[in-house]
Design goal:
Elements: H1 4-36, H2 42-69, H3 72-75
């Protein structure tokens, strides 16, 4: 599906995008919750945040595994 050098380029772009999103969610997301949620409800808000984050991470990992299984690299075709 992808040429070997094209796959490397795509991986580098993906890592760069992941780094940007990770930096934003690890700083801005938590600060935003602290700024808009009352102190008494922050525990629940952070819990919801991490449940959604964790489920999204899991779904993305499953999708990535499925995509990998269906590429030329995995099948050897």
């Amino acid at each position: 599906m992808f040429a070997p050098h094209g796959g490397l380029r795509l991986a580098i772009i993906g890592i760069g995008l992941w780094s940007i999103v990770n930096a934003a969610t690890n700083s801005i997301g938590k600060a935003m919750i602290a700024a808009i949620v009352p102190l008494a409800q922050r525990g629940r808000a952070y819990g919801i945040y991490y449940v959604v984050f964790g489920l999204s991470w899991w779904a993305g990992s499953v999708l990535l595994g499925w995509l990998y299984d269906h590429t030329q690299y995995a099948t050897g075709v």
